[in-house]
Design brief:
Elements (H helix, E strand, L loop, with lengths): L1 E2 L2 E5 L5 H9 L5 E4 L23 H10 L7 E4 L18
Parallel strand pairs: 2-3, 3-4
Antiparallel strand pairs: 1-2
Length: 95
């Protein structure tokens, strides 16, 4: 979901794969939001590893996606984003 030049994905509007696509095609900023924790049952369906079990999905995904580009364009939110409550961040300037 685009908002003010930034892209926000939560479990209602996207997936880890959608977030990765946004990053790889050059989105300036992406915020992933998820209240869930990685557990063994999702390892076959989502891009998490055994070492991620017990950690927040949003934290793990943001860390992994920030490895795609060196400029830390992905941030995380460990809660649901309700309409009208999207966090505003100052836009980053690209060199």
């Amino acid at each position: 979901m685009a908002y003010g030049g930034q892209h926000y994905l939560d479990s209602r509007h996207g997936s880890p794969a959608a977030a990765e696509i946004c990053v790889r095609v050059g989105a300036a900023e992406v915020t992933v939001a998820d209240t869930g924790v990685v557990h063994p049952g999702i390892l076959v369906r989502q891009p998490y590893e055994d070492a991620d079990i017990g950690q927040y999905k949003a934290v793990v995904l943001a860390r992994r996606l920030n490895n795609v580009h060196a400029d830390d364009r992905v941030s995380q939110c460990r809660s649901r984003l309700a309409p009208g409550t999207l966090p505003r961040q100052s836009p980053r300037r690209r060199a």
